Structure formats: C-alpha cells, structure tokens
Amino acid sequence: MADMFACAESRSGSFRKVAFEAVTAARHAADASGGGKVTVLAIGPPGLSAKAAELGRFGADRVIVVEHAGLARYSPEVFAATAAVQLQPGSFRVGFFSASAEGRDLAPRVAAVLGVGLASDITAFEISGDAVLARHPVYVGKAVATLRLTGTPALVSLRPGAIAPVEQARTPQVEVAAPALDPAAARVVVTELAQRAAARMDLGEAPVVVSGGRGLKSAENFKLVEDLASAFGNAAVGATRAVTDDGWRPSSDQIGQTGRLVSPALYVAVGISGAIQHLAGMRTAKVIVAINRDKDAPIFKVADYGIVGDLFEIVPPLIEAVKRARAEQQ
Amino acid sequence: MKIAVCIKRVPDTEMRFAIASDGKSLDPAGLKFDISDFDGYAVEVALRLNEQHGPGEVVVVALGPDALQETLRKALSMGVDRGVHLQADPVPFDGLAIAGALAAELKGQGFDLILFGRVATDTGNGTVGPMAAQLMDLPCVTAIAKLDIAAGNGTAQRELEGATETVGFPLPAVLTIDEGIARPRLPSLKGIMAAKKKPIESRPAQLGPVHLTVEKLEFPPERAAGRIVGEGPEAVAELIRLLHEEAKVL
Ligand SMILES: Cc1cc2nc3c(=O)[nH]c(=O)nc-3n(C[C@H](O)[C@H](O)[C@H](O)COP(=O)(O)OP(=O)(O)OC[C@H]3O[C@@H](n4cnc5c(N)ncnc54)[C@H](O)[C@@H]3O)c2cc1C
Ligand SMILES: Nc1ncnc2c1ncn2[C@@H]1O[C@H](COP(=O)(O)O)[C@@H](O)[C@H]1O
Question: Where do the DSSP E strands lie in B153-199?
C-alpha cells in the first residue's frame, strides 16, 4: 500500500485536462499498490477550492488547495517551494506532474529542491519493487527508453495525452494551505498571459491535427488548412518550419524536431514533403493522411492514406466531404 | 556581460543508427556528433547579446568524454571566448546528476546569464537547466522564445499551450532557450583559425547522485507501409470511407 501525490495544473482558475490525467495516474498507482491514498495539490487564485470536487471525480482522496490573490498566474518560485513542502520525503511513493509547458518548468525545480530523481515526459509507468519503470521517448522520438527511477518520492512528469483521464468518483477531503513563499517575494514574475484566439484547440490536446507546408504557397492560402480543421471540429492547426520561417504561421505552430511533438488520433499533412525533422514531431500519430502532388514525397512512406495531386483541387471537396460525414453522424 | 552557455555533445540521429548489444545504448559505429540543436541557439543568443550590449565574455561549458573538445572548439569558432570541459564518461542520463556538476562549476563565478538549451535532443528530458538554477539559487525562466535585457533586468516570452507568457526577472539569471529566438551562425574561416588558439580548460566533473538510469532502449514499432488511396479530387470519397470505416477516426 503506497500513497501518491499529484500536482493539478490550472489556468485562470480552471483545471486543465492534464490535471485530470495526473490524478488518474496517481489513482491508478495507488490502487495497483494495494490501495494507498491520493493527495492532490492545486495552486491558484482564490476560488479554486470550490472546484476541488472536480479532482475527486478522478480519484483524489485529499485535495490541498493553496489559494492566493498573487497566484492568478503561474509563479515558478512560489509553486516549486510550495510543491516541495507538500511533497515531503517519506509521505509519498511517487509524485505525478504534467509534462505541459508549466509542468516541464515546475517538476525539475521541485526535484532539485528535494534532491530526488525525476523521469520527465513519460508515456507509461509501472512501480516495480523499489523502482519506478517509465517509458520515455528519446532521440527526438526515434527510440524509446525504459527508465529506472529509484528513491522516494520518485517524481515523474506525464506527457499530455498519454494517459486518458478515467472517472472514479470520490468525495475528497479539502484542506487549505498557505504558499511556502510570499508571491510578492518572487524574483521571477509572469507579468502577462496572452491567450491566443481560443477558436482552436491546442496542438498537444487536439484529437485531430491538420498541418500545412510550403505547398500552400502563401499565408492567405492557409485558410484552406483552417477550414479543413474547422470541418473536423476537434482539430488544431500545425505547420512545418518552412512555413513558420516564412512567417505564414507563428512559430508556436511548428511541428517537428525543434517544434511541438504531437500524437493525435488523426494527422492530416497538406503540401508537406515529410522531411525527417518534421516526421520526428508527428510520426506517432495513430493515422496519417497526406496530400501532395509529388508521388515520391517522403511523407507518403509514413502516411496510412495518401492522395497524390494538387492540394488546391483536393482540399476544397475534402472540406465539404468531412462536413457531410460529420453531419450524417449527428 | 559575462555569459555561460552549457552545451551538450549529442549523436546526430538524423542519420540511421543502431542500438548496441547491451540493449541500452547506441551502437557507436558510424555515429557523428554535434552540438544539441537548442544549445546552438543558446550560443547564438549569447553572442548576439554581447554584440548588442558592448564587450563581455562568452564561455561554453560541456560535460562528457574527451571527444567533446571538438564540440567546444566548434562553439569557439562561432565566436565564443573560451571553453570548459568537465570530464565524465559515460554521461549519466539523470538530469540532476549533470545539473549538480554544472552548478558546482558555474556558481559564484560572476556570470550575468547562464544559458541552457530547452531540451537535449538525446535525452529529451528538458530538466538540467531549471535543476541547475535551483541548485545555484538563481532566478530561472525556461523555454524562452524572445528575450530583452535592459538595466540589469530581463523580459522573456515563453509559449504555453494556446497562450504566450511574458516573464520578468532580475540578473543574474538562468535561461533555457527554445527555437525561434536566433538561428545559429556558421563558423567563418577566420573564426575557425582563431578558435585554435582559444583556451579550453579540462577537469573532472563533480557529478551529483544518480537516481535515473536507462534500463532498455528500443525502436518504436515501425509504421506499416503507406498506401496511396488515389489521385486528384476523385480520391476524396474513398479517403472519407476509409477514415470512417477502416481507421474509425471520422
Ligand atoms: C536542425 C533542423 C531542425 C529542423 N526542425 C524542423 C521542425 O521542427 N519542423 C519542420 O517541419 N521542419 C524542420 N526542419 C526543416 C525540414 O528539414 C524541412 O526543410 C521542412 O520540414 C520542409 O517543410 P515543407 O514540407 O513545408 O516544405 P518542402 O520540403 O518545400 O515541401 C513542400 C511540399 O509541398 C508539395 N506541394 C507543392 N505544391 C503543391 C500543390 N499545389 N499541391 C500538393 N502538394 C504540393 C511539394 O511536392 C513538396 O513535397 C529542420 C531542419 C533542420 C536543419
Ligand atoms: N552533459 C552536458 N554538458 C553540458 N550541458 C548539458 C549537458 N547535459 C545537458 N546540458 C544542458 O542542459 C540542457 C537540457 O538537457 P536535458 O535536461 O538533458 O534535456 C541542454 O540543452 C544543455 O544546455
């Protein structure tokens, strides 16, 4: 029987999906150990404690809420100090974080404060005796390592989307705690959080990603990619580096070795050659569709379904066909 | 400004590679090595900062086997002033062990900025920078895509899922560099000649304790060979059918 800890990420006072993934993983680990308790830490602005029940839905036994008016935005130093205090060595077997932009910043700091090991960006795990065995993609996704992590607490950060949230409702005991560092004393301060147009899902979370390459020819033509994504409904828009370099799309849209790594259920590559650095970011997608006029383009080697031809002729009827197919299912 | 950049020598895995017979490392045969992608960007950021803000010093630090002196030399040929080699062979996978050695080397040396890559292309960990910052008790901003420095303070931007964060921090500080900030320059012939005379110090690394090791390394399952559904707009109907009935993603 072993107790688990999870850190629940929120933004602007609401829990993110990755928070439920972390709680699900902690619940699973506690149950697999013969029924330990799951403690979840939630840090944010006043009002967060009212949402603690959402964490109970995924199996939290106990929720520690640290609310403070100075914590409306992420504060790396306050969050790290607070998580380290709550995650005192001796109480928990494993501490689960998210390998999201925030969690990738937070978890290493906490590991360094506590002087414990961290397996970062893992896709699966298992507790085996005095070790945690974790799967982690290495060499930009070209190989997968099984890592052995020893010591307690062992910290891991979970790749977003790798562990699906599973509901196992409990009524958690909610406690309120103070931040371990006064937010006003933090040296590093997030002064602004600019949400991008929320019309689209995030690349890392969307079940469908539609990406465009240089074959689109101009920024204006990206409307075709946007429209195809809208037709799918649950899609995000990505791009190659050729496209972000030319400024047709922001660099945050870049997928590949030096951009985002995505594993959606469906990846649609429009006018993308399939350079090795691009494949590194999307080859773990479940299903890949490619549209390219060059039948020898490398993207067709990884595409489950390819259409050879001019994207400007193919994408417009595809948009209509996807809309029809989705309308029929409703 | 006095700026340190931690650079890692990593195998170039854009080429084909094989897993060694121990089942947990790369087969060294035919491997080529280079500076990890984001560390190249970090070197460029350091060089540009000093070009903009007047004279200073840029030092590169790398932990690993003797062969990485070649990697340090490449950074020197880009315009870096000197190199430090911390000897460790093999290099542990554990970020905290590496961060311990880098922090011991860099702490209290009067650096205004200490730069890291956002993530190394071999480990995919992205942990050494913020861990080293914590061990040195320095302010730290990770994965920055934009940077301004003025009057002893910095402002950086980092990309989150669906949002951009603007972060303020005082110097000295630790930053980890994301792409998009500066494409690394190529060494000039003059730079390559000058690099031959620049100093590289070498000493044993004081690694921290190791909690994380590689037990097994394998290739992900191969994707099944691709299939061309058809040519031109006529193929759209068949694609929709396959996505719906076979792949069940629509
Ligand atoms: C260190 C390093 C890191 C890199 N990191 C990344 C990364 O993270 N992500 C990334 O994407 N790239 C990255 N690259 C760049 C990568 O090597 C390629 O240059 C890039 O992916 C190519 O983008 P593309 O497919 O849009 O363009 P291209 O290679 O130019 O391909 C355009 C494709 O469009 C097709 N096309 C043209 N017109 C039409 C039409 N009318 N209809 C249908 N098809 C058409 C063409 O046949 C062609 O295949 C990196 C490179 C380096 C050196
Ligand atoms: N052996 C090393 N020598 C020098 N710098 C390193 C080393 N390992 C990691 N780093 C730095 O830490 C960053 C992140 O590495 P990692 O945490 O392994 O992804 C790298 O981009 C480098 O800047």
Answer: 153-160, 163-170, 173-177
